[in-house]
Amino acid sequence: MNSIKFLYAAYIATWLIHGLYVGSLVRRYRRLKRQMNDLGK
Amino acid sequence: MKRAFPIFAALTALLLAYAFYEAIWVAPMERTMGDVQRIFYYHVPSAWTAFLLFFVNLVASIIYLVRRNAKADAVAVVAAEVGVLFCTVVLVTGPIWARPVWGIWWTWDIRLTTTLVLWLIYVSYLVLRRFSESSQTPKLAAVLAVLGALDVPLVYFSIWFFRTQHPQPVIGGGGSIDPRMLHVLLINWLAFSCLAFLLCWVRYRLEWLERKVEEAQALESLLGDTVPSSQSAPVKLPPEKTQSSMGPQ
Q: How far does A14 lie from chain B, in Å, by closest CA?
């Protein structure tokens, strides 16, 4: 059974999902910072 | 608190790296499944972490329903969002494990189906929080969270009470596990729990900032309606809010 590729796929998918979530948090923070700057003007 | 965040983040990264090393190189290879069994070290801790976060969501939602506490409401949103993240990992890694072991990606087995329903319930919760602008939204979402949490014990105990294709629980129940595998499993759970705590920490700060900005925008639009724009006072957030970094202060 060539199962190693499934192991790699699962680990990569896990970190990809976490990475995408962290990316979405960064985007939300940047948008928020822009809104705060607009309010500060 | 300003220093605690980077220190905790660095420790979590080290722990995750160590847990990865243990899962790949230290844990013994399972006799029948081979290397693909190592998916278990990410799949099971992610499931436990998701259950823990949905439990936090339940407690925070009950506190909100009883006391109308805004902080409890924020904790509920954060726990649900990070819980959905971990539940997504469970639903993705499960089929990747199932394909070489069962020969199929998915089956409408009770454990798999209840997990998918659990994920859908909390995604609905997040959609409700995101797109409903009614003042009743936090209350409705809290009720949904309380009802949704009923699915968590159903997911967990489904393999105890029903005939299922899913493996038996490794702790308690009918399953058994090599002590070295259990050690690696618990290290991975600790690492993923730390990661979940870290993500909740960041997300909670973001949630508060979003609420403050929404309040300030509402105030600004109110002032804009009553005072001519040239005479309206600028709405400023406190300096520490406008200059805050991503990490908690």
A: 6
A18-to-B60, B118, B187, B200, B231 alpha-carbon distances in Å: 24, 19, 19, 13, 47
Looking up tokens 């040239």 gives B230
Q: What span, in angstroms and rounded, lies between the C-alpha atoms of B9 and B13?
A: 6
Token duo for residue B146: 């309380």
Question: Could you say which residues from 201 to 230 on chain B have a Cβ atom under 8 Å away from some Cβ of chain A?
Answer: 202-203, 206, 209-210, 213, 216-217, 220
B39 belongs to a structural domain: yes
Domain of residue B178, CATH code: 1.20.120
What range does the domain containing B9 cover? 4-208
In a domain, B147, yes or no: yes
ipTM reported for the complex surpasses 0.90: yes
Q: Rounded to an integer, what distance in angstroms lies between the CA atom of residue B41 and that of residue B19? A: 9
What's the average pLDDT block by block, 10 residues per block, for chain B (249 residues)? 88 97 93 90 96 97 95 96 98 95 91 94 95 89 93 84 74 72 95 97 94 87 64 47 42
Q: How many CB pairs under 8 A join A and B?
A: 87
Asked if residue B217 belongs to a domain, the reply is: no
